Amino acid sequence: MRQSHQLPLVGLLLFSLIPSQLCEICEVSEENYIRLKPLLNTMNQSEYTRGTSFSANVLLSLQLVGIQNQNLKQKLIQQIEYTVKRRLSQVSSGELALIILALGACRNPDENLIYDYHLIDKLENKFQAEIENMEAHNGNPLTNYYQLSLDVLALCLFNGTYSTTKVVNYFTPENKNYYFGSQFSVDTGAMAVLALTCVKRSLINGQVKTDESNLKNISIYIKSLVEKILSEKKENGLIGNTFSTGEAMQALFVSSDYYHENDWNCQQTLNTVLTEISQGAFSTPTAAAQVLPALMGKTFLDVNKDSSCVSAAGNFSNSTHEPVTVTTPGSQSSISVNYSVTINETYSANVTVPNGSVFLDVMEKAQKMNDTIFGFTMEERSWGPYITSVQGLWASNNDRTYWELLSGGIPLSQGVGSYVVHDGENLEVHWSKY
Ligand code: CBY
C-alpha cells in the first residue's frame, strides 16, 4: 500500500527534474501542430519537383520529427539510393553527409544502405579533398564551411575517422569561411556549433582520445560562435534571417551552457517563425525541411539516439495529400522591371513579365532579348536554381566569387527560383566576392 503511494511521488519528483534539463528547448505544443501543416504540405510536394538534391534534407527532417508518411519516405529513399548508385562522384561532401544523416536517423532499417555502399569511407575521402583544396587554394574549401560542418557532424555521429586536431585548426571562430564579406553566416555558425558539440561530447565520453587542450579549445570555439549567433538576433526574435533561424535554434538548444537564460527568448523566436509559416515564407521543400526539426524541439544531434524517433506528431500528416497549388500569374496582367548585370560596367534593360513571375523568369526573358549581354547558366541546388555564370563569367569557390542577387541595391534572401518580382523593381545580378 505504502509503495503504491510512493510511486506517484517518485514520478512527480522525476517529472519536476526533467523540465529543468529541457527548459532550454521550447517547442510547438500539440494543439499548435496544425500551424506546421504548411511545412508538411510543401515537403510533400518534393515528389513532384524536379531534381533530387533536397531529398536528403526532407527525409532527415521527417525522420527526426517522427512523421510516419511511408509513401513519401519510400520515394525519397529511392531517389537517394539512385544518387548513391549512379552519381556519388558528383555529390558534394555536405550532400553526402546529409544522405548519411537521413539514412541513419533513428535506427531505421535503411541505415544498412550506409554500410552496403561504404558511405562513411566515401565521406572521409570527400572531407579529405575539402582539406586538401584549402591547403592548395588559400584556405578555400571545395564547397564551404556549412558543408564541412555537416561532414564533421556525420563522421562524428557515425563513428567515422577524423582528426580532432584538424578540426581544432580549421574551425577557429575567426576563420574567414564563417563570413560572406563582412557578414557572419548564421547558418554556417549554427552548423559548426552542432558539429563541435558532437566532437566535444565524444571527447568527454572517451569515445575519441585527444589531449586536454583540444577539448578546451573546442569549448572556447562553441562559446564564441554562440555569441556571434546571438548577436545576429533581430528585434522580432529571428536569428540571421527567416531561413537561418531554425538552425540557429538547434545550435542554441545544444549549447545552453554557454549563454544566460535572459540572452535568448526562445518562445518569441518560435512565435515569429510560426507567423512566418502562416505567411507562406517556407515555400520550398528545403526551407520547410530545415526549419521543422527545431520547431519540434529536435536537433541533428538526436540523429543517433538509440530509440526510433516516434512522436505525437506521428500521424498528423496523414491527410496532407493536397493537390499542388500551381501559381497561375494573376489574371495574366503584366509588370515591368528594370534588370541589370553589373561586372565593372552595368548593362540594363527594361523587361516585361507576367504578374507573379520570379527573378529567373526575368533573367530568361532578358536572355531571349540579348543573349550576349544577358546569357547565363545555372544549376539545380537543394534550395532551387543557383546562377553559375552570366556573360560567360563563372562563379568560383576557389576565388570566392559569385553572382549576387539584389533588389534596389539590397541583397535578396531568396534565390532566383523563389523570389517573386514586383512592378517597377530594380533587379540586379552583381559580380561579387564573398
Ligand atoms: N548547403 C550549402 O552548401 C549552402 C550553405 C549556405 C550557407 C546556405 C545559404 C545555408 C543553408 N542552410 O543551406 C550558403 N548559402 C552558401 C555557402 C552560399 C555560397 C555558395 C558558394 C559556396 N562557397 O558554396 C555563396 C556564393 C556565398 C551563396 N550562398 C550565395 C547565395 C546567393 C545565390 C545567388 C545565385 N548566384 O544564384 C543568394 C541568393 C544571396 C544573394 N543575395 O545573392 C543566397 N546564397 C541565398 C539567399 C541563400 C539562402 C537561401 C534562402 C532561400 N529561401 O532561398 C540561404 C539559406 C543559403 C542557401 N543561401 Co547562399 C542563406 C540564408 O538566407 N539563410 C548544403 C547543401 C548540401 O545543401
H/E element order: HHHHHHHHHEEHHHHHEEHHEEEEEE
Instruction: Tell me about the largest β-sheet.
Output: 5 strands, mixed
Q: Which regions contain 5 or more consecutive residues with pLDDT less than 50?
A: 7-23
Discrete helix count: 16
Class inferred from helices and paired strands: alpha+beta
What is the CA-CA span between the terminal residues?
70 Å
Spatial shape: globular
Bound molecules: COB(II)inamide
What is the average per-residue confidence, as pLDDT, rounded to a whole number?
Answer: 90
Beta percentage is: 5-15%
CA-based gyration radius: 23 Å
Order of strands, widest sheet: 4-3-10-8-9
Number of strands: 10
Range of helix content: 40-55%
Pfam families: Cobalamin_bind (PF01122), DUF4430 (PF14478)
Organism: Theropithecus gelada (Gelada baboon)
Protein name: Transcobalamin 1
GO molecular function, one term: cobalamin binding
